[in-house]
Every structure is written in C-alpha cells, then in structure tokens.
Design goal:
This protein is mainly beta.
C-alpha cells in the first residue's frame, strides 16, 4: 500500500521529530534544528521532507538523520552558482557522483554513511564543507521518563555536563548542549543519543592555550576515568582547543561519535589526545580536526623546557576502526614530540578512510603516521599496526624520526591510495627498526622498494621489509580516444575466489573481472568539466579482505593532433627570463587520454597544447618550515601519439617538491600507471 503521508511530526519538548518515508517505504528520521544553530546555507531533502542544516564551526555545516533503507538525498545551496566549479562526495569508496540541477545536487544513499560534500579542492580550514551523518536507527528507546537516566531533551541547554559515578547520560536528537562534557575521576559512565555538544571556550585564538588539562576546557575531558562509553553524539568545537583530551584514563569506547572542529587559527584542535592511559576503542566514528587527529603524549603541561622534559606515563592499547578521518592541517596519527619522554605501544588503525590529511610541514612533512622525537625525545614507541586504510587527499605516508631509543615494529598492510600521488617523501631516521610494508599500493602497484614510496632511510635506521600476499588488483582498459558513449572494456586478471567490484566515477558500478562500460559525458567525476574520471576497483578475497586500485581515465570528444618533428634533444629548457619555468615537448606513446601532474609549492601553471591548469592558493607551512605545501597541478587531455607542447610556469617562491630546480612531472594514461615522465619522453627544439 502506498503511503500518503510525507512526514509525521512527533512533538516533544516544543521540538519536532520528523519521520519521512522514502519511495521504497523505508523510514527516515531527523530532529528539527534549534534556531540558534540552524542555517539555510544548505537545505537537505531526504525522501519527501526538507530540512535546514546545523551551522557547526567556521564554514562547516552538518546534519544527522537515521535511515533504515536506501534513500535519495538532495542538497540545495542558497547560491544558485554554488556548484559551478563541481562537487566532490567523500569517502570515495561509495562511488557517489551527484546529478546537478542548478543549485541542487541529488544522489542515492544506499546505507548508513558519514559523508563529506565539498567543491573540488576545498578541504582546508577556510573551506566550506557539509557533513551528512546517516545513522542506523537508534537501538535505545529512552525518554524523559526512563528511570536512571540524565535526560537532555530537544532544544538548547546552556550548561556544562559533569558526569557522576555510574551516570547514564542521554542527549536526545535535537538537543544542543552549549558547553563541555567533563568525565573527571569517575568510573562507569555511559553517554548516548543523537544530540550535540557545542563547545566555544575562552581560549586565546592566536596561541595554543588549548593544551591545558582542566574542567570545561575541551568539548570532552577525561581525567583518571575508567569504564566510559560514548556513542551516537556529535561534538562540535568552535574555539582553539584540543577537542577530546584524556589523561590517565582507560577502558574507553567511542561508537558512532562525530567530532567537528574549526576555528580561524587553524591549529591546536586535535581530535583525540591521550596524556597517558589508553585501552581505548574508537569505532564507526567521524573526526574533522584542525591539527593531529590522534595524538599520544605521556603528559602535557605546557611548552617550557622543564614541562617538555618531564617523563610521562605509558599510552597503550588503542584501536581505531571503521572510521572516517579528516583534518585541515597536521597528521592523522602522531606519537611523541621532540623533547617528550614516554612509552607507547599497541596502537592499531584499521578499515578506515583518510579523506583529508594536512598539507605541508611542521618541522617534518605531515603524514599518515608520524612518530617524531627528534632530536631529544626518548621512549619506546612500538607495535603500531596500520591496516586496510584508504588514502584520499594525502601528503606523505610515514615519518619515523627518533635518534634516541627507540621505534620498533611499525607495520603497514593493505594501504591504498584512492586518487592522486603522495606529495612529500617519507623518512625513517635514527633508532628505527622493524618497519614493514605489505600490500601497500600508492597508485602504481604494490611497493617493493624505498623508491616506490618514496622513502629515505638515514642516520642508522634499519631498512624496512617489503612483502605482498597477492598482486595488487591492477586493471587495464581499452586504449585510444574515449568519447562520450563509447564502450570501454575494463579487465583485471581474475584470481580464484576473488570478487571484483567496479566504481567508474560517474555514479555507475558493476561486478566481474571483465566489464564493458560507457561514459555519458565528459564532465568528469567531480563535474568540473575536465573529463577526468576516477575509476576504482575493489577486489575482495575469500577471507573478506578488500584491496583497492585506482586509475584515472580521460573522456574527451576528440584527440589533440601531434607534431612529428624528429631529432630533438632530450629535456625541457628554461623559458627566457625565468630560472624556474620550462618549456618543450612530451612524446606521447599512444592515442588516448592522459593526465599530466606537476608537483610544486609555487604559484604555478601547467599547460599541454595550450590547455592550462593553475595551482591553487599557496598554503604556508608552519612551525618554521619554509615556503608552502606541495600541491598537485593536473591537466587531463586526449592526445594523439606523437609530440605535444608542454609549458611549466613557476613563480619565485621556494620549491619544496624536489631537491633540484628541475620540475617534478608525472603522467598516467592507457597502459601506463602514474609515474614520473621518463627523461627520454621530454624534448626541446634544437637552437
């Protein structure tokens, strides 16, 4: 029977809880948003019901809702031209490419997910971002009359919450707590619900005072707490402070917790910090930070020499899994600091999407994992396992730097770069050993040696071990010009017991080892008009482990004609009057679509046969690191085999992409994974 009601309103505490039904009869539930935090900058329609969003922090907006079956989602921006430059929906593994109609984008959502929606390239602190949190239906049926529960109903509550021993605290959907949650020297506390903590403290916006460990100084603070469970809630931080800080606390679980921080300072908004303690599980959660997402220190009592050199307590037994991780600056995982003294061990990050990593450097390049105690830090950092992690916008893989004893047993397994290269080399330095890379695919098959990462090993560090349990699921596709509508054959060498799932970057998906697919337009995955499609292949073996591989495919209506001049000398030449800009020719081996990528930290442009892409805004490095972060400048074109003109214009800024003045240029195309353009393919006219 077809449902006629589009939405049922259940009134509670003067706030509406909406239940809408999608076309398939599944239920969608979301709470109305208090006017104090409501915004119509975006309007979201789910099923037949529309809602404003929460204005969270900086340019960040969010919406929580429950779904029990597939739904259709429409996001409408208040600016009719908002999506003119394109749109990106992450994590990439969902394969979502919206359909655009003016100010609105529409896409299907098949399952609960934590999505980030931006315009292409907007993942910095000054960007606008929309976070959609599609939750599973709540398993608790708690009301204001449930005995033994501290109940916070829908609406705004201007208070800090101090947990008591054995507390059961419930934040109902639509509840907004304007304050902090303090779990201070108490045990056995349970916090749940789909309500929100919104913290905006008195911290100095220009300096780091957010490290202080005291009541009401973080959105969630724990001190010597044990047996703590937090699930479902959203925590938003608007001031410059470490967001969730735990000192000497153990037996802590976070499930389906969403943490969003943003402030003009773009610093010192760590996601979670351990000052001693551990025994922590973070599961099915989302963190958007403005500093390290996870940071481990034995203690932190300020930046004085005495405070930094005071030995701290052990941090151990931390597991992060099935989560979506994002930061505007700094690392995903950090342990130690140049003068800190403490031990850490048994840290695991697995089955998670790193959708945004910090770009640039604070003394050393930002990384997926940074264990940095150079030059004076001490302590044994051991047994770190990073498994089944998908990298999207990323900077470097690993920075392990500790001249004093010791870093031991750091293991990377099944790491996949979903789109784009790393932008800075990794490094092992000092008393570092027992590092392994197994089934690590950064875009060109499994890494087998240092140069594939690339990785620098220095100052006594031991060489890492490389291995693979299976070949990366690398695939090929039909060469030649790929016009809109042309059928393309995608092929992966089939292995027994392996299932293959394709995401073509245009919203379509298919299963099998050999698939034919056609692209309807040349707008590209990001609807940015480049014709560049991100094609992903997920290969799942009998044990359930999934390995990802990625290729960039270019769809264009025609090929650019090639030049045929022979006898040209190798190499690009400097453009007259410039010490950093180059021009010349590139020899394309076969007809087809190619993406050329310039890595640079300067104001730059890359042109191929006159089709030009400019670099984005320069992002200055911090902590005294000179110059700006390296970025990728990409041009995607369809080229006939032969010679094509290349021009690289770079500004006078410091170039951090390479140790030499020569530009770093990569290419990818038919039968060719992303790799540096070979020296023999770069030529210039003889004078």
């Amino acid at each position: 029977m077809r449902r006629k009601a589009a939405c049922v309103l259940l009134l509670s505490a003067a706030t509406a809880l909406c239940m809408a039904w999608n076309a398939a009869g599944g239920q969608v539930t979301f709470a109305s948003i208090p006017p104090e935090v409501s915004s119509t900058h975006f309007t979201v329609k789910i099923g037949h019901k529309s809602t404003p969003v929460v204005s969270a922090a900086s340019g960040y907006y969010l919406l929580n809702f429950d779904i029990s079956s597939p739904v259709q989602v429409t996001v409408t921006a208040s600016d009719p031209h908002y999506w003119d430059r394109g749109v990106e929906v992450q994590p990439m593994r969902f394969g979502i490419r919206p359909r655009r109609d003016g100010a609105s984008i529409t896409f299907p959502l098949e399952q609960p997910a934590k999505l980030t929606i931006t315009r292409p390239g907007e993942h910095y602190a000054d960007s606008e971002m929309l976070f959609l949190f599609a939750n599973k239906p709540e398993r608790y049926r708690i009301t204001a009359n449930t005995p033994g529960v501290r109940y916070y109903g829908p609406g705004v509550h201007r208070e800090n919450i101090d947990a008591h021993e054995g507390d059961n605290i419930y934040l109902a959907a639509g509840a907004v707590i304007m304050g902090a949650l303090n779990i201070w020297q108490v045990d056995n506390v349970h916090v749940s619900g789909l309500g929100m903590l919104l913290y905006n403290g008195p911290q100095d916006p220009d300096h780091d005072t957010g490290w202080m460990h005291k009541l009401n100084w973080h959105v969630i603070t724990m001190d010597s707490a044990h047996g703590i469970e937090i699930e479902g809630i959203t925590a938003v931080v608007r001031s410059r402070t470490w967001m969730i800080q735990m000192r000497d606390s153990r037996g802590v679980t976070f499930r389906n917790v969403k943490v969003v921080g943003g402030s003009p300072g773009n610093a010192n908004q760590d996601g979670m910090d351990w000052l001693g303690g551990g025994d922590t599980l973070v599961q099915d959660s989302f963190i958007r930070a403005a500093d390290d997402i996870f940071a481990m220190y034995g203690n932190w009592d300020g930046y004085t020499e005495e405070a930094l050199a005071t030995p701290g307590h052990e941090v151990s037994n931390i597991t992060i899994e099935s989560s979506v991780l994002s930061t505007s600056i700094s690392n995903v995982v950090r342990a130690n600091w140049p003068k800190k003294i403490f031990d850490s061990n048994h840290f695991t990050l697995r089955d998670s999407d790193v959708i945004h990593m910090g770009m640039g450097s604070c003394g050393v390049p930002f990384a997926l994992v940074e264990l940095w105690a150079d030059p004076a830090g001490k302590g044994l950092q051991s047994n770190y396992r990073i498994e089944d992690v998908r990298l999207e916008d990323w900077y470097s893989l690993v920075q392990l730097r500790q001249p004093n004893p010791a870093i031991r047993d750091v293991h990377f397994e099944n790491i996949s770069a979903m789109d784009g290269p790393g932008l800075a080399p990794s490094e092992l330095k000092g008393d570092v050993s027992g590092v392994t890379f197994r089934d690590v695919n950064l875009g060109a098959g499994n890494v087998r040696e240092d140069a594939n990462i690339p990785l620098q090993v220095m100052d006594g560090a031991a060489e890492p071990a490389y291995g693979h349990s299976a070949e990366a699921a690398d695939f090929s596709y039909t060469g030649g010009l790929i016009r809109p509508g042309r059928k393309v054959t995608f092929t992966v060498p089939a292995a027994i017991g392996v299932r293959y799932h394709w995401l073509f970057g245009d919203g379509a998906a298919a299963d099998g080892a050999v698939i034919q697919h056609s692209f309807a337009d040349a707008d590209g995955t990001l609807l940015d008009g480049t014709g560049r499609y991100r094609v992903l292949l997920a290969a799942t073996d009998a044990s359930g482990r999934t390995r990802w591989s990625s290729r960039t495919l270019v769809v264009r209506p025609s090929l650019m004609a090639a030049q045929t001049e022979e006898g040209m000398p190798q190499g690009l030449v400097k453009i007259a009057g410039s010490d950093a800009s180059y021009e010349g020719m590139v020899r394309i081996p076969a007809d087809g679509g190619y993406t050329l990528t310039l890595l640079t930290s300067t104001t730059a442009s890359l042109s191929v046969d006159g089709e030009r892409t400019q670099s984005g805004m320069l992002r200055p490095q911090v902590c005294g690191s000179k110059g700006a972060a390296v970025q990728a400048v990409r041009v995607s074109v369809a080229l006939a085999a032969g010679l094509h003109r290349v021009e690289i214009d770079r500004g006078p800024e410091i170039e951090n992409a390479a140790s030499s003045k020569e530009p770093v240029l990569l290419w990818e195309g038919p039968g060719m994974m992303r790799e540096p353009v070979s020296a023999s393919a770069l030529l210039h006219a003889a004078h």
